[in-house]
Design brief:
With about 230 residues, this protein is α+β, with helices and mostly antiparallel strands. Helices cover about 30% and strands about 40% of the residues. The chain has six helices and eleven strands. The strands form three sheets. Strands 3-2-1-4-8 form a five-stranded mixed sheet. Strands 5-7-6 form a three-stranded antiparallel sheet. A three-stranded antiparallel sheet has the order 9-10-11. α1 packs across α4. The longest helix has 15 residues. The chain is globular, with a radius of gyration of 19 Å. The relative contact order is 0.15.
Length: about 230
């Protein structure tokens, strides 16, 4: 959420074995967690079936205290790093702000080798381009998500009878946690977040995300790590 805007709703994280719901209230630049709920995946729910996952989400909201928040404010889905193409781009410094979205879309679709209408593309400006852009260039961190996945998330929300407030890269949430520490240090910070079936690695420098990757792991590999 941008500074100055308020929102109360639910962030949804869908994993292979469980669904996590986090109720949040954002106001005046602060974020408050209003509730947390985890729901195990029923054995008959296939993650390939948006309608089945939507029914799972609907039941999870009913079992939690967050249903009313999701109905009023909608939901934000946390998207795994593996679903998103993330690129640092160096663009001409003289580009007009109005030209940025189309220029970034063109560069990203070229790198993804897909038509421009087959992906949802967004970007964040970077104060310093970690790829070494010159002063005549401007750096952005661009992301792209295939349209089929966007449609899948919409299908999940439709079946659960909630509105999609947004799709956000999970790595951005991890980066925000360590942003304060990285801003105080002379150098980059590596944050590692183990999950059910994957581990996310995020590098934050000067309070900004500059690198994100994830690695898939077997479930018992994480449990048995020392």
């Amino acid at each position: 959420m941008s500074a100055g805007r308020s929102w109360r709703g639910v962030i949804v994280g869908i994993g292979p074995g469980a669904m996590d719901l986090v109720g949040v209230q954002c106001a005046r630049g602060r974020v408050e967690v209003t509730g947390v709920h985890r729901e195990a995946r029923p054995g008959d729910v296939s993650l390939d079936d948006a309608a089945a996952v939507g029914g799972w989400l609907r039941d999870a909201l009913r079992a939690s205290d967050l249903r009313s928040d999701a109905k009023r404010g909608g939901v934000i889905f946390g998207v795994p790093r593996g679903e998103v193409v993330l690129k640092r781009l160096a663009l001409p410094g003289e580009l007009d702000e109005a030209e940025l979205p189309e220029t970034i879309r063109l560069q990203m679709t070229r790198q993804m080798a897909v038509a421009s209408d087959e992906a949802a593309i967004d970007f964040l400006p970077m104060e310093e381009d970690a790829a070494g852009a010159s002063s005549a260039e401007r750096g952005v961190l661009a992301s792209a998500l295939e349209a089929s996945r966007v449609d899948w998330y919409r299908g999940v929300a439709r079946e659960a009878s909630v509105k999609v407030r947004g799709l956000s890269l999970r790595s951005l949430g991890l980066a925000s946690i360590v942003a304060g520490s990285s801003a105080r240090l002379d150098g980059a910070v590596l944050a590692i977040a183990p999950g059910e079936d994957r581990i996310e690695f995020v590098v934050v420098e000067g309070g900004r995300l500059v690198f994100a990757r994830e690695a898939e792991v077997e479930g018992d590999a994480v449990e048995g790590a020392e």
